[in-house]
Amino acid sequence: MNLTTKLEQIKGVGPKTAAQLRSAGLETVGDLLAFLPRRHEDFTNVAPIAELKPGNVTIRARCEKISTRPVRRGLRLTTAVLVDDSGKLNAVWFNQPYRTQQLGASDEYFFFSGVFEYNYGRYQLTNPSAELAKELPVQAERLLPVYRQLRGLKSQTVRKIIEQLRPLMSVLPETLPPSVVAHEALMSRADAISAMHFPRQAGDVVRARERLAFEELFQLILASQLNKIENQKLQGHRIVFEPDVVRQFVSQLPFALTNSQRRAAWDILQDFEHATPMNRLLQGDVGSGKTVVAGIAARQAASAGHQTALMAPTEILAAQHAETLSTLLSPFGVTVGLLVGSVKGVARAALYAQIASGGVDVVVGTHALFQDKVAFHNLGFVIIDEQHRFGVEQRQRLLGKSGVLPHLLAMTATPIPRSLALTVYGELDVSVLNELPGGRKPIKTKLVSPPSRDKIYQRVERELQAGRQAYIICGLIRDNPENDRKSVETECKKLKNSVFGHRTIGLLHGKMKPDEKDHVMQDFKDKKYDILVSTTVVEVGVDVPNATVMMIEDAEQFGLSQLHQLRGRVGRGKHQSYCYLMMSTNNKPSERLREIEQSNDGFYLAEVDMRLRGPGEIYGRMQHGALNLQIATLADTKLIARAQKATQAFIASGENLADYPDLAREVRRNQRLTTLN
Ligand code: ADP
Ligand code: MG
Q1: What residues of the chain score a pLDDT lower than 50?
Q2: Which of 198, 305, 413, 626 is deepest in the core (most CB within 10 A)?
Q3: What does the radius of gyration of the chain's CA atoms come to, in whole angstroms?
Q4: Whole-model pTM?
């Protein structure tokens, strides 16, 4: 048996188990050893029921009675009575009805990591995990590895198979350069993997996790640094700065640039002059004026004979960008085309032809820009709005459309914490817009409990009387019997038949056809509606400066960054704007809502969000999906800093990455993930 042995050749792994393992991507012994436990349960501290103290506890008990019942919509409660020699205890699980089948009356179980607490007038054990006692290893190691549940395969089965691989631990190769392992005083890879699967004490697991997390971060950061080095060797288009062209464009704007807009534009124009392609992130809170910065750069590119492509995440936004840019650029003879899904037939064919011939200078679009049919003419500059909404593959496809790599500008309103900037975005240069354009009044935000609803409607009415407009946001399109959240359709009808019967009300949601959506949005912009009742499709970037009220129904249901994004739809003109966060109950508002009521600062709120939810939640998709970090988290700023120093030292040492094939393979994979080119 060695690391490449197929799993079905192991004793006790039948065809069925092998198939289950395969469906999780585990085919060989090596794959299974790399499948690390999610966590470890400690069963050294088993306490008798009679002696439990509040907090996290583990007990060994039988389950006397168990049943599940629905409590209200979306909540099923499982209750059980657990018994050991010292006493009895009530246990509850929320939305885990399978416990009823799992726990038989005659067997003994370990109940791990439940919370023993006083609730509803009595002590209970909440949400413990359960393992059949007789299935646990006899001369029990004190920490029990718990594996991610594979389809139909219990943690216990995985444990049994891995147990048989124990003799192989010593042959696991070292994958980090020995100089790094030594300098950082890390556990060897073999010891670390062994400690994860067969831990003797908690300290082993801590050191093993440190080693494995370090390795993941080292690979990721090295990839990003190598990308930067490789980018610097690429040939791009040199676009020479023409002061008169830019000055003339800026002087025709209806406003003066903020200092940070000026600086950002300058950064970009300097990058254009280099022979290597730009790779820059433009970060700025909602309303900070990123579009005009992009417009300045597009003006310069066009003057040098280069096409610009701008990609937006939705049709509404693409249409809006096209309109804005067209207004800004057409006085200078720069033409703007809009390529979205709803442009069809002859019009589409004509647009393709114009793009290919260079008849349009700036092409704005959604994913339609990625299609193979689109051929550009001397594409020199690519702008991606809200870049986190685009996958890496999509970006690569677009960038692959031009023989020479175009300059790239990614624009985002999502503040990027330093840890992320160092790891994933290490190869990017960053410009920040950190001031709001002049004359803007900060939005006033208010939490509203149900009894105050009528008073708020009166205030909205006052704004409408003054000629302003309002958004009302609901989480759902239509009512859902599963919960009592407000829906766009019902709310719209209700308002038309009651308080706002004398007002014009538009309705918008994501299931409408793109041209219908655009129509409604355009009508709202043209003031054909006083009120727009909408789902969160208006979330990003929509610009109606006359709208001064943002009313968000069931505000508790939205995340902090989403609320902040929604609020950013108002406060875009010279009038005072208001955001009303409508709560569905009289309960004490969450910390999240209290924070957003107090602050308009997106960067501050991003940090609050990170603290309240943890970076795993926010960047979770990215981490576990694309980045494939099993052990490391982007919250571990200390380890990130260490790994960054170590990668720099490795590059400086002149060692050859190719001498470490395992590392090289992972780094190459990460390079494809993190690169923007
Ligand atoms: P975002 O950064 O959210 O994409 P936009 O580019 O949509 O912001 O700009 C928001 C609004 O601010 C637009 O109406 C734009 O015309 C206006 N704006 C941009 N820069 C300035 C400025 N320097 N002074 C006044 N208004 C500005
Ligand atoms: Mg924008």
Answers
A1: 617-625, 676-677
A2: 413
A3: 29
A4: 0.67
